[in-house]
Design brief:
Length: 505
């Protein structure tokens, strides 16, 4: 962004953009600046990571050799955590820690506050990684930049070095200047970010497993909430309900915490896409209105993010129609088959097409990448209309959300979100002699039956829905032994939908 701003200034006749060494925000804080979190970092066991950090570092070095890079400076916290198979607790909901890393052909350095270290962590890194103080990154960056040999032209004037240090396009300007500026720095899409987005088999299996446990938690929650609102006619506000969901999740194996603030929203609040209920200042859940719940959790073996929209009373015709149009979009993405090299930008219209035919749409992306016990929003891939999503093709091993929606301001909101994983598709032909891709869904939570207008579904869509519900039932029912309330709810919500149910409605 700084480089683009500098170019803009020069185009308009300005001189240049000059960086200052003093952080102006720090001056504003003065002595009132909060201290940096001091939580311990931890080692992620190989049974969850699936690949040794030494191998990941070697992959980075191969990329540097292949594309002639002097080294890579890593500033994205989730990339540092993933690269070294470490996790932290410095950022709410994101298991990362304040750090930098530097990888060169011969060295690997982790910049981290020494107070975050444990004996297990230092033993884990061993002699493969140098550990330096967090603040030393800028001192070392200057040394890295100075280490690059400048070439001399025939007239004796120095030229930029042939090799440059790589930094992410999302890195700070200060880091770029610390390395010596544009002559010594190349901004690239991070190879660590690209590698992290392509999950290995261990990570994919972890995603499958944690979504089954998480799906069981959501079914238990929805069954409990329905009983509270309809049978017992209790009053619950949006935060009280969200607290109950967290309590249920926390009892599941390998649970660590939530992956973001739960969006527990009733009625008109569901139309606010990133609504956040505030404790003591939120709405009471209205059983006669739409209820949208967008929530997720962090488990040692994966990260979840699921949205379901329910109605505990009788939905209006427009609510059912909107829900079904959104559901058709979810199914279209889930059933998509496309050639290798296709981007999320290219398939976005599959989800929107049914809404578009009605002159409707939604103002958010259709899907985002998801980390493996990391950030719930992860680049560089996604499904949406942003041009950035056209720059990176979808690859086997990508994990994304599939979450179209529809929102009527001041009235109601609909969103359905499943997690999907890109895999190689089995096709009758291989046009162009290249692989074709499809998706595998891992979210195991029923759709809301009373919100579905079965007449709007094609035979193929009904088959998909019935098979999905059977899969949800088969994979989660074991969690409800002795829990008659949830089991009855699950059986009701997952029973097959037949077109004759709607023939006379």
């Amino acid at each position: 962004e700084a480089r683009k701003l500098e170019e803009k200034i020069k185009k308009k006749g300005g001189s240049s953009l000059v960086g200052v060494k003093t952080n102006l925000v720090d001056l504003v804080w003065g002595d009132q600046r909060p201290s940096r979190p001091n939580e311990k970092a931890s080692v992620l066991d190989i049974k969850y990571a699936g690949k040794k950090f030494e191998e990941k570092i070697q992959d980075v070095r191969k990329e540097l050799e292949k594309k002639k890079g002097a080294g890579l400076i890593i500033s994205m916290l989730d990339e540092v955590a993933w690269l070294f198979n470490l996790r932290g607790n410095d950022i709410p909901y994101n298991p990362v820690f304040f750090s930098y890393a530097a990888i060169t052909p011969t060295t690997a350095t982790l910049y981290i506050d020494a107070r975050k270290l444990t004996s297990d962590l230092t033993a884990h890194l061993g002699d493969h990684v140098r550990i330096r103080p967090y603040e030393a990154i800028f001192e070392d960056s200057a040394a890295f930049g100075n280490s690059l040999e400048s070439e001399s032209a025939s007239d004796g004037k120095p030229q930029a070095p042939k090799l440059k240090f790589w930094i992410s396009t999302k890195a700070s300007w200060a880091l770029s200047l610390g390395l010596g500026g544009q002559e010594k720095v190349e901004e690239v899409r991070s190879p660590v970010g690209d590698a992290k987005a392509i999950k290995n088999e261990t990570e994919l299996e972890g995603m499958r497993a944690c979504h089954i446990r998480d799906g069981a938690s959501l079914s238990e929650y929805f069954a409990w909430l329905e009983e509270q609102l309809i049978v017992k006619q209790n009053k619950l506000d949006e935060v009280e309900a969200a607290d109950k969901l967290e309590e249920i999740r926390s009892k599941k194996e390998r649970f660590v915490g939530l992956s973001f603030d739960t969006i527990s929203s009733t009625g008109a609040n569901a139309a606010v896409i990133h609504y956040k209920p505030e404790r003591g200042n939120c709405s009471t859940i209205d059983p006669r209105a739409v209820y949208l719940c967008d929530s997720g959790a962090q488990y040692l073996d994966g990260t979840t993010d699921t949205t379901r929209t329910l109605h505990f009373g009788e939905p209006t015709e427009m609510e059912r129609k909107s829900y079904t149009l959104v559901l058709k979009g979810v199914i279209a993405i889930d059933r998509a088959v496309f050639p290798k090299g296709t981007s999320g930008f290219a398939i976005d219209t599959l989800a929107r097409q049914f809404l578009w035919r009605e002159g409707l749409d939604y103002r958010h992306g259709t899907g985002h990448g998801v980390g493996s016990y990391l950030n719930v929003h992860e680049g560089p891939i996604g499904i949406g209309t942003r041009i950035a999503f056209s720059e990176v093709p979808l690859s086997i091993g990508n994990v994304l959300s599939d979450e179209p929606g529809y929102y009527e301001d001041g009235n109601f909101g609909i969103r359905i979100e499943n997690m999907i994983m890109a895999k190689e598709a089995e096709t009758n032909h291989k046009f162009g002699d290249k692989p074709w891709l499809s998706f595998e869904h891992v979210t195991m939570v029923p759709m809301c039956r009373k919100m579905i207008d079965g007449k709007m579904l094609t035979p193929e869509e009904r088959t998909w829905l019935n098979e999905y519900h059977q899969e949800v039932y088969d994979k989660t029912k074991a969690f409800f032994e002795g829990d008659e309330r949830t089991l009855k709810w699950l059986e009701r919500e997952t029973r097959p939908i037949h077109v004759m149910e709607f023939a006379l409605s």
